[in-house]
Write a structure and sequence with these properties.
By secondary structure, this protein is mainly α. It is built from seven helices and no strands. It folds into two domains: 103 residues; 133 residues, no CATH class. Helices cover 82% and strands 0% of the residues. Keywords: Membrane, Transmembrane, Transmembrane helix.
Length: 256
C-alpha cells in the first residue's frame, strides 16, 4: 500500500467521522426541537382549555368560544403530527371539528361568574392576557391572518373594559348595600375615571352615564351624612360658648 493510498484512507476516515458526528448532531438537535415543540404545544393546549372552561359566562360570546375551539384544534393537529398514535388527541380533534363545524351556533355553557372582588378581577385579567398571547402566537404561526388577529386583539381590549365596568359597578353596589356610601363613591369614581381614559370613550357612553348617576347618588348619601354631623358640631360649639360665657361671669363675680 502506497503512502498516497494510506493518506486517502486517513482522509476518508476523518471525513466519515466528521459526517457521523454531524449526523448525530442533527439527530440530537431534531430530538431537542421536537421535545421543545411538544412542551410548547402542550402548554398552549392547557392554556386554551383553561380559558375555554373557566372564562366567565357573562363575558363569553359564541364568536369567542368558536375562536378558542379553532385555536385548540390547530394545536391538537400539530401535536398529532408529533404523536401520531395518540388516541386522546384523535378523539379531541373529532370533538373540536364538530364544534367548529357549528360556527357561531356553538354552545356556550360557561356559567356566569360575577366580578365582585379584586382577586376575581385579576384572575379574569390573567385569562385575557393568556388569550392575547394565544392570538398573537397563532398569528405568528400563520394560522390567523393579520387582520383577524388585530380584530380579536381589539375585542380582548373591549372585554377588559367590560370587566372593569362590572367590577367597579359590583363593588360600588355592594358598598351601598352595606350602607357604606363613601366606599361606594370611591368605587364609582374609579369606574368613571377609567372609562374617561379610554381611547374611544364614546363607545362606552351609556355605561359612563350609568356610573356617573351611581356616583352622584353615592355622593348625595355621603353629603346627607355629613350635614347632621356638621349640625352637631355647631350645637357643640354653641354649647361651649355658653359654658365659656358662664365661666367668665363666675370669674368676674369672684374677682369683683
Amino acid at each position: 500500500m502506497t503512502p498516497l493510498m494510506i493518506t486517502l484512507l486517513v482522509v476518508v476516515g476523518i471525513a466519515l467521522l466528521i459526517a457521523i458526528g454531524y449526523m448525530n448532531h442533527v439527530v440530537e438537535n431534531n430530538k431537542l426541537e421536537k421535545a421543545r415543540t411538544k412542551i410548547e404545544l402542550n402548554d398552549r393546549l392547557r392554556r386554551c382549555g383553561e380559558i375555554t372552561e373557566t372564562f366567565p359566562g357573562q363575558l363569553m360570546t359564541p364568536a369567542l368560544k368558536l375562536l378558542l375551539a379553532r385555536l385548540e384544534l390547530n394545536v391538537c393537529q400539530r401535536l398529532l403530527n408529533l404523536e401520531k398514535s395518540s388516541a386522546n388527541l384523535k378523539a379531541r380533534i373529532a370533538e373540536l371539528e364538530a364544534l367548529v363545524g357549528q360556527g357561531e351556533s356553538i354552545p356556550v355553557n360557561n356559567p356566569p361568574a360575577p366580578i365582585q372582588t379584586e382577586a376575581k378581577a385579576k384572575d379574569v385579567r390573567f385569562l385575557l392576557e393568556a388569550l392575547h398571547g394565544q392570538i398573537t402566537r397563532a398569528a405568528q404561526d400563520g394560522f390567523l391572518s393579520p387582520n383577524e388577529a388585530k380584530r380579536w386583539i381589539r375585542e380582548v381590549r373591549h372585554i377588559l373594559v367590560l370587566l372593569h365596568i362590572e367590577f367597579f359597578n359590583n363593588l360600588g353596589q355592594h358598598s351601598l348595600q352595606q350602607n357604606q356610601p363613601g366606599q361606594a363613591r370611591l368605587a364609582f369614581e374609579r369606574g368613571v375615571q377609567y372609562l374617561r381614559k379610554q381611547q374611544e370613550p364614546q363607545v362606552y357612553a351609556e355605561q359612563l352615564e350609568y356610573l356617573e348617576k351611581l356616583l352622584a347618588r353615592a355622593n348625595d348619601q355621603v353629603m346627607d351624612r355629613i350635614a347632621p354631623v356638621e349640625g352637631e358640631v355647631n350645637q357643640l360649639t354653641e354649647g361651649l360658648k355658653d359654658v365659656e360665657a358662664d365661666a367668665d361671669w363666675k370669674k368676674k363675680v369672684i374677682y369683683d
